[in-house]
Write a structure and sequence with these properties.
Blueprint lengths: L1 H10 L30 E4 L1 H9 L7 E4 L5 H9 L3 E4 L2 H8 L8 H7 L8 E7 L7 H14 E12 L7 E10 L2 E10 L7 H7 L5 E6 L4 E7 L1
Parallel strand pairs: 2-3, 2-4, 4-5
Antiparallel strand pairs: 1-7, 5-9, 6-7, 8-9
Helix pairs in contact: 1-3
Length: about 230
């Protein structure tokens, strides 16, 4: 059943609730990502992920949105918990949404991404996608996340914790278990902006609360409560 569901996600058409396809012509919104192999993934303990799943422990039938794109590890883990998973490859769509001049149509992009009814989701695995968005798109994306999540739901996001960096890794995330991630570096790019606790509090000021976890690998994990 899990295998069939993954195939369905990968076959979903543009505009479907389970998969957001790339639109437009290739642009320069993100650098080209490199092809990943199994040996590229490293095991990483995640306090933030552990906290995210502890909040929904004992629940079943929840709707979880995963912005990392459809992959077998995440689909299997979420569905084995008894929840529904909806996958969007947010960064891939961002890269292809730019026009020939490298400019992004905000309205077009949000028509094809995060285009769900109000209060659709009980949780969102945001990962590190917010780091790659310019100010207008970042603000619009956070507002859209606010709209499509239910009151009391949770978001799990990851940010670089270094104050001065000229390039930042773009990661691929796979869930191994509720406390462990498989993480691979799939390329670097210049960050749109660097976040600290104060700027993140401002970014999510319309949400109920934030909780921070600073890891040894210079990543800041954030749990956001709707």
């Amino acid at each position: 059943m899990i295998r069939d569901r993954l195939r369905a996600i990968l076959r979903s058409q543009p505009g479907s609730p389970e998969f957001s396809s790339a639109i437009g012509r290739p642009g320069s919104a993100l650098e080209t990502e490199r092809t990943l192999r199994a040996e590229d993934f490293k095991t990483r303990h995640s306090n933030g992920l552990d906290q995210f799943f502890s909040y929904i422990k004992g629940e079943s039938g929840l709707s979880i949105l995963d912005l990392a794109g459809a992959n077998q590890s995440n689909v299997s883990f979420i569905t084995n918990l008894g929840h529904r998973i909806y996958s969007e490859d947010f960064l891939r769509s961002l890269r292809f949404a730019a026009n020939g001049d490298g400019q992004l149509s905000l309205d077009t992009f949000l028509t094809q991404n995060l285009n769900h009814p109000d209060a659709s989701f009980d949780g969102v695995l945001v990962w590190d996608v917010l780091e790659y968005l310019n100010a207008p798109l970042l603000s619009a994306t956070v507002q859209r996340l606010l709209r499509i999540t239910k009151p009391g739901s949770y978001l799990f996001a990851v940010f670089q914790a270094q104050d001065k960096i000229e390039s930042t890794p773009q990661y691929a995330f796979r869930i191994q278990d509720s406390k462990t991630l498989l993480v691979a570096d799939r390329g670097h790019r210049k960050p749109e902006q660097v976040f600290n606790n104060r700027s993140l509090e401002k970014l999510f000021q319309e949400f109920d609360s934030l909780k921070f976890f600073l890891a040894r690998d210079k990543l800041r994990e954030v749990i956001v409560r709707r």
